[in-house]
Amino acid sequence: MLIEQFTVRRLKMRMKEPFSTSFGTMQDKQFLLIEVKDELGNCGWGESVAFEAPWYTEETVETNWHMIRDFLIPLLIGKELSHPDQVGENFSSIRGNNMAKAAVEGAVWDLYAKRNNLSLAESLGGGRAYIDVGISIGLQQNLSDLIEKVRMFLDEGYKRIKVKIKPGADVELLRRLRAVYPDVPLMADANSAYTLDDIDLLKQLDDFGLLMIEQPLGYDDIVDHSILQKELKTPICLDESIHSLADARKAIALGSTKIINIKIGRVGGLSEAKKIHDYCMDNGIPVWCGGMLEAGIGRAHNIALTSLPNFILPGDTAGSSRYWEKDIITPEVTVQDGKIKVPVSKGIGFTPNLATIEEFTVGKWHFTK
Ligand SMILES: O=C(O)CCC(=O)c1ccccc1C(=O)O
Ligand SMILES: [Mg+2]
Protein backbone atom coordinates (compact mmCIF):
# COMPACT_ATOMS: atom_id res chain seq x y z
CA MET A 1 0.00 0.00 0.00
CA LEU A 2 1.67 3.18 -1.24
CA ILE A 3 0.93 6.27 0.87
CA GLU A 4 0.50 8.68 -2.03
CA GLN A 5 -1.48 11.69 -0.90
CA PHE A 6 -2.86 13.46 2.17
CA THR A 7 -5.55 16.10 2.57
CA VAL A 8 -5.79 17.83 5.94
CA ARG A 9 -8.91 19.83 6.74
CA ARG A 10 -9.57 22.06 9.72
CA LEU A 11 -13.22 22.03 10.75
CA LYS A 12 -15.25 24.15 13.10
CA MET A 13 -18.45 22.66 14.53
CA ARG A 14 -20.68 23.91 17.31
CA MET A 15 -22.02 21.42 19.82
CA LYS A 16 -25.71 21.54 20.70
CA GLU A 17 -24.80 22.54 24.21
CA PRO A 18 -21.65 23.41 26.18
CA PHE A 19 -19.75 20.60 27.90
CA SER A 20 -18.16 21.42 31.28
CA THR A 21 -15.53 19.55 33.25
CA SER A 22 -13.32 20.48 36.20
CA PHE A 23 -10.85 21.94 33.68
CA GLY A 24 -13.22 24.16 31.66
CA THR A 25 -16.17 24.53 29.29
CA MET A 26 -16.33 23.88 25.54
CA GLN A 27 -19.01 24.40 22.94
CA ASP A 28 -17.28 25.32 19.69
CA LYS A 29 -15.09 22.51 18.51
CA GLN A 30 -12.26 22.92 16.06
CA PHE A 31 -10.43 19.81 14.93
CA LEU A 32 -8.45 18.31 12.05
CA LEU A 33 -9.58 15.63 9.64
CA ILE A 34 -6.96 13.59 7.80
CA GLU A 35 -7.69 11.96 4.46
CA VAL A 36 -5.07 9.61 3.00
CA LYS A 37 -5.01 8.05 -0.49
CA ASP A 38 -3.10 5.06 -1.84
CA GLU A 39 -1.91 4.43 -5.41
CA LEU A 40 -5.19 2.64 -6.27
CA GLY A 41 -7.39 5.56 -5.25
CA ASN A 42 -8.59 3.99 -1.97
CA CYS A 43 -9.02 6.53 0.75
CA GLY A 44 -8.94 6.47 4.56
CA TRP A 45 -10.06 8.97 7.18
CA GLY A 46 -8.81 9.96 10.62
CA GLU A 47 -9.83 12.65 13.14
CA SER A 48 -7.60 14.48 15.59
CA VAL A 49 -9.15 14.70 19.06
CA ALA A 50 -6.94 17.56 20.29
CA PHE A 51 -8.92 20.53 21.58
CA GLU A 52 -8.17 24.21 20.97
CA ALA A 53 -6.75 24.67 24.48
CA PRO A 54 -4.27 22.36 26.28
CA TRP A 55 -6.61 21.57 29.19
CA TYR A 56 -6.91 17.81 28.89
CA THR A 57 -3.41 17.12 27.59
CA GLU A 58 -0.72 19.47 26.33
CA GLU A 59 -1.76 19.02 22.68
CA THR A 60 -3.90 21.53 20.78
CA VAL A 61 -5.34 21.84 17.27
CA GLU A 62 -2.39 24.11 16.42
CA THR A 63 0.30 21.79 17.78
CA ASN A 64 -1.34 18.90 15.92
CA TRP A 65 -1.35 20.87 12.69
CA HIS A 66 2.34 21.74 13.16
CA MET A 67 3.30 18.13 13.91
CA ILE A 68 1.22 16.64 11.11
CA ARG A 69 2.37 19.12 8.46
CA ASP A 70 6.05 19.41 9.40
CA PHE A 71 6.90 15.97 10.77
CA LEU A 72 4.32 13.20 10.47
CA ILE A 73 3.20 13.55 6.84
CA PRO A 74 6.82 13.96 5.62
CA LEU A 75 7.71 10.71 7.45
CA LEU A 76 4.97 8.73 5.66
CA ILE A 77 4.36 10.20 2.24
CA GLY A 78 5.72 8.07 -0.60
CA LYS A 79 6.25 5.08 1.75
CA GLU A 80 5.14 1.57 0.94
CA LEU A 81 3.43 0.02 4.00
CA SER A 82 2.10 -3.48 4.42
CA HIS A 83 0.28 -2.85 7.73
CA PRO A 84 -0.83 0.18 9.82
CA ASP A 85 1.37 -1.02 12.72
CA GLN A 86 4.24 0.36 10.61
CA VAL A 87 2.92 3.92 10.96
CA GLY A 88 4.01 4.02 14.62
CA GLU A 89 7.40 2.56 13.66
CA ASN A 90 7.84 5.37 11.12
CA PHE A 91 6.94 7.90 13.83
CA SER A 92 9.32 6.46 16.45
CA SER A 93 11.76 9.39 16.08
CA ILE A 94 9.03 11.80 17.23
CA ARG A 95 8.37 12.00 20.96
CA GLY A 96 4.91 12.52 22.38
CA ASN A 97 2.24 14.27 20.29
CA ASN A 98 0.04 11.20 20.53
CA MET A 99 -3.16 12.82 19.26
CA ALA A 100 -1.42 14.07 16.13
CA LYS A 101 0.08 10.61 15.54
CA ALA A 102 -3.25 8.88 16.17
CA ALA A 103 -5.11 11.08 13.67
CA VAL A 104 -2.72 10.11 10.87
CA GLU A 105 -2.46 6.47 11.93
CA GLY A 106 -6.27 6.21 12.12
CA ALA A 107 -6.57 7.35 8.50
CA VAL A 108 -4.06 4.66 7.47
CA TRP A 109 -6.00 1.98 9.42
CA ASP A 110 -9.19 2.92 7.55
CA LEU A 111 -7.29 2.88 4.25
CA TYR A 112 -5.80 -0.54 5.03
CA ALA A 113 -9.20 -1.99 5.95
CA LYS A 114 -10.84 -0.64 2.78
CA ARG A 115 -8.01 -1.85 0.56
CA ASN A 116 -8.37 -5.35 2.05
CA ASN A 117 -12.18 -5.40 1.95
CA LEU A 118 -12.45 -5.65 5.72
CA SER A 119 -14.34 -3.62 8.28
CA LEU A 120 -12.07 -1.65 10.60
CA ALA A 121 -13.39 -3.74 13.50
CA GLU A 122 -12.40 -6.97 11.70
CA SER A 123 -8.95 -5.58 10.84
CA LEU A 124 -8.41 -4.90 14.55
CA GLY A 125 -9.59 -8.39 15.52
CA GLY A 126 -12.88 -7.23 17.03
CA GLY A 127 -15.78 -9.65 17.10
CA ARG A 128 -18.68 -7.88 18.79
CA ALA A 129 -21.71 -7.12 16.61
CA TYR A 130 -23.01 -4.50 19.07
CA ILE A 131 -21.29 -2.35 21.69
CA ASP A 132 -22.81 -1.17 24.97
CA VAL A 133 -22.75 2.55 25.52
CA GLY A 134 -22.94 4.91 28.45
CA ILE A 135 -23.14 8.67 28.60
CA SER A 136 -20.80 11.28 30.06
CA ILE A 137 -22.71 14.27 31.46
CA GLY A 138 -20.83 17.53 32.00
CA LEU A 139 -21.08 19.66 35.12
CA GLN A 140 -24.52 21.34 35.29
CA GLN A 141 -25.65 24.69 36.71
CA ASN A 142 -27.67 23.00 39.41
CA LEU A 143 -28.70 19.60 40.71
CA SER A 144 -32.18 19.60 39.23
CA ASP A 145 -30.72 20.08 35.72
CA LEU A 146 -28.42 17.12 36.36
CA ILE A 147 -31.25 14.92 37.64
CA GLU A 148 -33.32 15.79 34.57
CA LYS A 149 -30.42 15.07 32.18
CA VAL A 150 -29.83 11.70 33.80
CA ARG A 151 -33.54 10.87 33.39
CA MET A 152 -33.45 11.86 29.72
CA PHE A 153 -30.39 9.73 28.92
CA LEU A 154 -31.74 6.74 30.86
CA ASP A 155 -34.96 7.04 28.83
CA GLU A 156 -32.82 7.02 25.66
CA GLY A 157 -31.40 3.68 26.84
CA TYR A 158 -27.83 4.58 27.89
CA LYS A 159 -26.48 1.80 30.07
CA ARG A 160 -24.20 3.73 32.38
CA ILE A 161 -24.21 7.28 33.69
CA LYS A 162 -20.96 9.17 34.20
CA VAL A 163 -21.08 12.52 35.95
CA LYS A 164 -18.30 15.03 36.27
CA ILE A 165 -17.23 16.14 39.72
CA LYS A 166 -14.95 18.86 41.07
CA PRO A 167 -14.24 20.32 44.53
CA GLY A 168 -17.50 21.81 45.75
CA ALA A 169 -19.60 19.60 43.46
CA ASP A 170 -18.84 16.08 44.67
CA VAL A 171 -20.05 14.31 47.84
CA GLU A 172 -23.37 16.11 48.23
CA LEU A 173 -24.03 16.02 44.50
CA LEU A 174 -23.51 12.25 44.39
CA ARG A 175 -25.46 11.67 47.60
CA ARG A 176 -28.50 13.47 46.19
CA LEU A 177 -28.19 11.89 42.75
CA ARG A 178 -27.94 8.43 44.33
CA ALA A 179 -31.05 9.14 46.38
CA VAL A 180 -33.01 9.72 43.15
CA TYR A 181 -31.38 6.86 41.19
CA PRO A 182 -30.42 4.17 43.73
CA ASP A 183 -29.78 1.37 41.22
CA VAL A 184 -28.38 3.08 38.15
CA PRO A 185 -24.83 2.07 37.06
CA LEU A 186 -23.11 5.30 38.05
CA MET A 187 -19.55 6.62 38.02
CA ALA A 188 -17.77 9.94 38.58
CA ASP A 189 -14.94 11.59 36.60
CA ALA A 190 -12.83 14.23 38.38
CA ASN A 191 -10.43 15.04 35.52
CA SER A 192 -7.55 15.42 38.00
CA ALA A 193 -9.29 17.95 40.26
CA TYR A 194 -8.06 16.49 43.60
CA THR A 195 -4.85 15.72 45.49
CA LEU A 196 -3.99 13.30 48.29
CA ASP A 197 -4.88 16.11 50.71
CA ASP A 198 -8.51 15.38 49.75
CA ILE A 199 -8.29 11.74 50.82
CA ASP A 200 -10.97 12.04 53.54
CA LEU A 201 -13.40 13.59 51.09
CA LEU A 202 -12.63 10.97 48.41
CA LYS A 203 -13.21 8.15 50.94
CA GLN A 204 -16.78 9.41 51.42
CA LEU A 205 -17.47 8.51 47.78
CA ASP A 206 -17.30 4.84 48.82
CA ASP A 207 -20.84 5.26 50.21
CA PHE A 208 -22.41 5.61 46.78
CA GLY A 209 -21.71 2.25 45.14
CA LEU A 210 -19.96 3.84 42.15
CA LEU A 211 -18.73 1.56 39.39
CA MET A 212 -15.46 3.51 39.53
CA ILE A 213 -13.95 6.93 40.05
CA GLU A 214 -12.10 8.22 37.01
CA GLN A 215 -8.80 10.12 37.29
CA PRO A 216 -9.24 11.74 40.73
CA LEU A 217 -5.59 12.87 41.06
CA GLY A 218 -2.89 14.50 38.92
CA TYR A 219 -2.99 14.08 35.16
CA ASP A 220 0.66 13.02 35.23
CA ASP A 221 0.51 10.89 38.35
CA ILE A 222 0.66 7.13 38.79
CA VAL A 223 2.16 6.88 42.28
CA ASP A 224 -0.36 8.88 44.34
CA HIS A 225 -3.24 6.99 42.72
CA SER A 226 -1.76 3.75 44.11
CA ILE A 227 -1.73 5.30 47.60
CA LEU A 228 -5.33 6.46 47.17
CA GLN A 229 -6.53 3.11 45.78
CA LYS A 230 -5.32 1.36 48.96
CA GLU A 231 -7.65 3.63 50.95
CA LEU A 232 -10.70 3.34 48.67
CA LYS A 233 -13.18 0.54 48.05
CA THR A 234 -14.32 2.20 44.82
CA PRO A 235 -12.13 1.12 41.89
CA ILE A 236 -9.96 3.84 40.36
CA CYS A 237 -10.01 4.12 36.56
CA LEU A 238 -7.14 6.05 35.00
CA ASP A 239 -7.74 8.23 31.95
CA GLU A 240 -5.30 11.19 31.63
CA SER A 241 -2.33 9.29 33.15
CA ILE A 242 -2.18 6.49 30.55
CA HIS A 243 -0.38 7.37 27.31
CA SER A 244 1.09 4.02 26.36
CA LEU A 245 1.30 0.32 27.08
CA ALA A 246 4.32 1.12 29.29
CA ASP A 247 2.17 3.49 31.41
CA ALA A 248 -0.58 0.87 31.68
CA ARG A 249 1.92 -1.79 32.76
CA LYS A 250 3.37 0.49 35.47
CA ALA A 251 -0.03 1.66 36.76
CA ILE A 252 -1.29 -1.91 37.00
CA ALA A 253 1.93 -3.08 38.70
CA LEU A 254 1.62 -0.32 41.32
CA GLY A 255 -2.08 -0.98 41.92
CA SER A 256 -2.94 2.54 40.79
CA THR A 257 -5.83 1.49 38.57
CA LYS A 258 -8.31 -1.40 38.44
CA ILE A 259 -9.95 -0.33 35.17
CA ILE A 260 -8.52 1.61 32.23
CA ASN A 261 -10.22 4.16 30.00
CA ILE A 262 -8.63 3.80 26.55
CA LYS A 263 -8.75 6.80 24.22
CA ILE A 264 -7.17 6.24 20.82
CA GLY A 265 -5.81 9.79 20.60
CA ARG A 266 -4.32 9.85 24.09
CA VAL A 267 -2.34 6.64 23.50
CA GLY A 268 -1.09 7.55 20.01
CA GLY A 269 -3.32 5.38 17.85
CA LEU A 270 -5.20 2.14 17.32
CA SER A 271 -2.10 -0.09 17.31
CA GLU A 272 -1.10 1.09 20.82
CA ALA A 273 -4.75 1.02 21.98
CA LYS A 274 -4.95 -2.63 20.93
CA LYS A 275 -1.71 -3.45 22.78
CA ILE A 276 -3.08 -1.87 25.97
CA HIS A 277 -6.33 -3.77 25.47
CA ASP A 278 -4.48 -7.08 25.09
CA TYR A 279 -2.22 -6.45 28.09
CA CYS A 280 -5.20 -5.52 30.28
CA MET A 281 -7.09 -8.61 29.13
CA ASP A 282 -4.14 -10.84 30.11
CA ASN A 283 -3.97 -9.12 33.50
CA GLY A 284 -7.66 -9.13 34.43
CA ILE A 285 -8.12 -5.37 34.01
CA PRO A 286 -11.37 -4.45 32.22
CA VAL A 287 -11.23 -1.53 29.78
CA TRP A 288 -13.73 0.82 28.17
CA CYS A 289 -13.48 3.37 25.40
CA GLY A 290 -13.39 7.02 26.43
CA GLY A 291 -14.61 9.91 24.32
CA MET A 292 -13.31 13.32 23.24
CA LEU A 293 -16.59 14.83 21.99
CA GLU A 294 -15.70 13.45 18.56
CA ALA A 295 -17.38 14.13 15.27
CA GLY A 296 -18.38 11.12 13.16
CA ILE A 297 -14.97 9.97 11.94
CA GLY A 298 -13.45 9.75 15.40
CA ARG A 299 -16.65 8.20 16.72
CA ALA A 300 -16.49 5.49 14.04
CA HIS A 301 -12.92 4.62 15.08
CA ASN A 302 -14.05 4.33 18.71
CA ILE A 303 -16.86 1.96 17.74
CA ALA A 304 -14.49 -0.33 15.83
CA LEU A 305 -12.02 -0.43 18.75
CA THR A 306 -14.80 -1.17 21.25
CA SER A 307 -15.65 -4.36 19.33
CA LEU A 308 -12.55 -5.99 20.91
CA PRO A 309 -13.36 -8.55 23.64
CA ASN A 310 -11.95 -6.83 26.77
CA PHE A 311 -14.10 -3.71 26.27
CA ILE A 312 -16.33 -5.12 28.98
CA LEU A 313 -17.77 -1.90 30.41
CA PRO A 314 -20.00 0.54 28.50
CA GLY A 315 -17.94 3.38 26.97
CA ASP A 316 -18.53 7.12 26.44
CA THR A 317 -19.22 6.75 22.69
CA ALA A 318 -22.74 8.17 22.55
CA GLY A 319 -24.86 8.74 19.44
CA SER A 320 -24.14 11.63 17.03
CA SER A 321 -27.28 13.50 18.09
CA ARG A 322 -26.04 13.81 21.68
CA TYR A 323 -23.46 16.32 20.39
CA TRP A 324 -24.37 17.55 16.90
CA GLU A 325 -27.33 18.97 14.99
CA LYS A 326 -25.74 17.38 11.94
CA ASP A 327 -22.78 14.97 11.95
CA ILE A 328 -20.23 14.59 9.14
CA ILE A 329 -20.92 10.91 8.34
CA THR A 330 -23.72 8.96 6.69
CA PRO A 331 -25.48 7.31 8.40
CA GLU A 332 -25.02 9.11 11.71
CA VAL A 333 -24.20 7.03 14.81
CA THR A 334 -27.42 5.95 16.48
CA VAL A 335 -28.05 4.23 19.81
CA GLN A 336 -30.81 1.70 20.31
CA ASP A 337 -31.46 0.04 23.67
CA GLY A 338 -28.11 1.38 24.85
CA LYS A 339 -26.25 -0.28 21.99
CA ILE A 340 -24.53 0.78 18.79
CA LYS A 341 -24.33 -1.69 15.91
CA VAL A 342 -20.74 -2.24 14.77
CA PRO A 343 -20.68 -1.68 10.99
CA VAL A 344 -19.75 -4.63 8.80
CA SER A 345 -19.04 -2.67 5.62
CA LYS A 346 -15.50 -1.76 4.55
CA GLY A 347 -13.26 0.46 6.67
CA ILE A 348 -14.83 2.67 9.34
CA GLY A 349 -18.21 1.66 7.91
CA PHE A 350 -19.66 5.17 7.80
CA THR A 351 -19.33 7.38 4.71
CA PRO A 352 -17.78 10.81 5.23
CA ASN A 353 -20.38 13.29 4.02
CA LEU A 354 -18.26 15.56 1.80
CA ALA A 355 -20.90 18.28 1.46
CA THR A 356 -21.30 18.56 5.24
CA ILE A 357 -17.54 18.38 5.77
CA GLU A 358 -17.11 21.21 3.24
CA GLU A 359 -19.71 23.28 5.10
CA PHE A 360 -17.72 23.09 8.35
CA THR A 361 -14.26 23.40 6.77
CA VAL A 362 -12.25 26.52 7.61
CA GLY A 363 -8.97 25.38 6.02
CA LYS A 364 -7.82 22.67 3.62
CA TRP A 365 -4.32 21.60 2.53
CA HIS A 366 -3.08 18.96 0.05
CA PHE A 367 0.18 17.02 0.31
CA THR A 368 1.72 14.93 -2.45
CA LYS A 369 5.23 13.55 -2.75
O1 LIG B 1 -18.83 12.17 25.47
C1 LIG B 1 -17.61 12.13 25.35
O2 LIG B 1 -17.04 12.16 24.26
C2 LIG B 1 -16.77 12.03 26.60
C3 LIG B 1 -16.82 13.27 27.42
C4 LIG B 1 -15.77 13.31 28.49
O3 LIG B 1 -15.98 12.76 29.54
C5 LIG B 1 -14.58 14.12 28.24
C6 LIG B 1 -14.72 15.16 27.35
C7 LIG B 1 -13.66 16.00 27.08
C8 LIG B 1 -12.44 15.79 27.70
C9 LIG B 1 -12.29 14.75 28.61
C10 LIG B 1 -13.33 13.89 28.88
C11 LIG B 1 -13.05 12.74 29.79
O4 LIG B 1 -13.40 11.59 29.55
O5 LIG B 1 -12.38 12.96 30.78
MG1 LIG C 1 -12.01 11.19 31.85
From TrEMBL:
UniProt keyword annotations, A-Z: Lyase, Magnesium, Menaquinone biosynthesis, Metal-binding
Any single Pfam family the record assigns to this protein: MR_MLE_C
Pathway annotation: Quinol/quinone metabolism; menaquinone biosynthesis; Quinol/quinone metabolism; 1,4-dihydroxy-2-naphthoate biosynthesis; 1,4-dihydroxy-2-naphthoate from chorismate: step 4/7
EC annotation from Swiss-Prot or TrEMBL: 4.2.1.113
Catalytic activity: (1R,6R)-6-hydroxy-2-succinyl-cyclohexa-2,4-diene-1-carboxylate = 2-succinylbenzoate + H2O
Active-site residue numbers: K164 (proton donor), K263 (proton acceptor)
Sample GO molecular function, one term: O-succinylbenzoate synthase activity
Annotated Mandelate racemase/muconate lactonizing enzyme C-terminal domain residues: 143-235
Record-listed Mg(2+) binding positions: D189, E214, D239
Cofactor: a divalent metal cation
Family of this protein: Belongs to the mandelate racemase/muconate lactonizing enzyme family. MenC type 2 subfamily.
HAMAP family: MenC_2 (MF_01933)
Function description: Converts 2-succinyl-6-hydroxy-2,4-cyclohexadiene-1-carboxylate (SHCHC) to 2-succinylbenzoate (OSB).
PANTHER family: O-SUCCINYLBENZOATE SYNTHASE (PTHR48073:SF5), O-SUCCINYLBENZOATE SYNTHASE-RELATED (PTHR48073)
Stated name of the protein: o-succinylbenzoate synthase
UniProt source species: Sporosarcina oncorhynchi
